[in-house]
Specification:
With 473 residues, this protein is an alpha/beta fold. 35% of the residues lie in helices and 13% in strands. The protein has a 7-stranded parallel sheet with strand order 5-4-3-10-11-12-13, sandwiched between helices. Strands 7-6-8-9 form a 4-stranded antiparallel sheet. Strand 3 (77-80), helix 2 (87-96) and strand 4 (100-104) form a beta-alpha-beta unit. Pfam families: CofD (PF01933).
């Protein structure tokens, strides 16, 4: 049973009142005069933000002005990525544009995310929390304090982690230094609500080891609102990410999602963690180094979603894509397939019905950011193998034959950015056979542990050059 020693009582939002809060203007103290007022609905895709002068929506179209010439609008991008690799260039990307829709999977089952899902259920929020923090404001000392608090991880040793968690949720920890009362009360309320939900699961013992405070806050908000979109909205406002930036789960759900993969030898592997970087225990820190994990017995044929309920745990399910993702895909200036774990971070967003249809219909730049280092999922891959995997995912080649597409690779990818001196061979002739001729080499950084990866400044400069050339901005 979860420990019940929490010290002084702390009030937190009542679950009985959450529906009335969602349907009204939420009176949280951090919504000050400089923030837009807002209302929440069950679908955040239709949320409209109101300022003193005009309605403001997250959209890729520029606002029209009548009395003066408006400045050139920032380019709008949509990025398919996971929660780790692309984080390294987010800060630099903000210098080019903040009009970015970050599309992330919700099937991660490793680290503290796995413990939250095990005890409380629901979708994985770790990748979303990670991106929100990378986008968060750093312009004031308080913003930095909030970022530090929500980015904090508890100790690995379970008992020490529990004691530190109690200090945080009771408001005694030094991490609260620099956080004003309005923010403190808001964040603490949802941390306490998270703790309350754990205590209600009397048949489960929650392990706080290596736990992410941001994940706990996120999970508390999601359960309180019964809405993943509302939790993202709250988190993004608390961490003050740019209003033009969107963090979108590719599937908007309150249910647990499990990723599976089929290898070419017929083997089925259940769980993102088992596919990408299997560990020996729930709370063991994730290490994606290719040298530390066993190779797969065969290459990956496809990824798909598996039922988390019932007796047949290998039963394939077909969740619906988040409508907000489809709306963004229809209008953005550029689509990016980011570097990262190809089959467990990128492809889970691509196999959903509707994604391939829209991407293939667009004539905008469609850019693959090639990995600089191989991993367990891409052992032996060349650049054209990455293109094939993305094409197969978008075409749903190995799925229901009645719902498969037959589009060529060039309808999904027309440009590849390659890190200089990367480990992935660039098989130019095969890429040409796929209809891809625009390959750009970008300066890279070499790290003894992380391998080869894009130099952030060079990558964003190359992207800027592409957009200037293709969009005439």
């Amino acid at each position: 049973m979860a420990d019940t020693c929490l010290g002084p009582a702390l009030s937190f939002p009542s679950s009985d009142s959450h529906s009335s809060i969602i349907n009204a203007l939420i009176p949280f103290p951090f919504f000050l005069s400089h923030h837009p007022t807002f209302s929440l609905s069950s679908s955040m895709a239709t949320t409209t933000f109101k300022t003193n002068n005009a309605h403001r929506c997250h959209s890729s179209s520029a606002s029209a002005t009548t009395n003066s010439i408006s400045p050139q609008p920032q380019p709008s991008l949509l990025v398919f990525s996971g929660g780790t690799a692309f984080n390294g260039v987010v800060e630099e990307l903000k210098k080019l544009t903040t009009r970015v829709a970050h599309v992330l999977p919700v099937s991660d089952d490793g680290g503290s995310t796995a413990e939250i899902v095990r005890v409380l259920g629901g979708p994985a929020v770790g990748d979303i929390r990670s991106r929100c923090l990378r986008l968060s404001d750093e312009s004031t000392s308080e913003a930095l304090a909030v970022r530090k608090l929500l980015g904090h991880r508890l100790p690995l040793e379970a008992q020490n982690a529990k004691f530190e968690w109690y200090d945080i949720v009771e408001g005694k920890h030094s991490l609260w230094t620099g956080v004003s009362k309005p923010y403190r009360e808001t964040i603490r309320s949802f941390l306490a609500y998270f703790q309350d939900q754990i205590l209600r699961r009397s048949d489960e013992s929650f392990c706080f080891s290596n736990g992410s405070i941001g994940n706990f806050f996120f999970a508390g908000a999601r359960i309180f609102f019964q809405s993943l979109d509302a939790a993202i909205f709250l988190f993004s406002r608390v961490s003050e990410i740019p209003h033009e930036s969107l963090v979108l789960p590719v599937i908007s759900t309150n249910d647990r999602l499990t990723l599976g993969c089929e290898l070419w030898d017929g083997t089925i592997i259940r769980g993102q963690n088992e596919i990408s970087h299997p560990t020996n225990g729930y709370m063991e820190p994730v290490n994606k180094s290719n040298s530390l994990v066993p190779t797969l017995p065969s290459k990956i044929k496809r990824v798909f979603y598996i039922s988390s309920e019932g007796s047949n745990l290998l039963h394939e399910v077909f969740p619906s894509v988040n409508p907000a993702v489809l709306e963004q895909l229809k209008s953005v200036d550029c689509i990016i397939f980011a570097m990262g774990s190809l089959f467990t971070s990128i492809c889970p967003s691509l196999v959903l019905l509707g994604i391939g249809e829209i991407i293939s219909s667009r004539s905008c730049p469609k850019v693959l950011l090639l990995n600089g280092t191989r991993d367990r999922e891409t052992s032996g891959f060349t650049a054209s193998c990455f293109v094939t995997a993305i094409t197969d995912a978008l075409n749903r080649t190995s799925g229901n034959p009645h719902k498969c597409l037959q589009n060529p690779p060039s309808q999904y990818i027309n440009t590849i950015f390659v890190p200089k001196d990367g480990q992935i061979p660039i098989d130019t002739n095969c890429l040409a056979d796929q209809g891809i001729f625009h390959v750009v080499t970008v300066e890279s950084i070499h790290d003894s542990k992380a391998g080869v990866f894009f130099d952030p400044k060079a990558l964003i400069q190359s992207l800027s050059n592409l957009l200037l050339s293709e969009l005439k901005i």
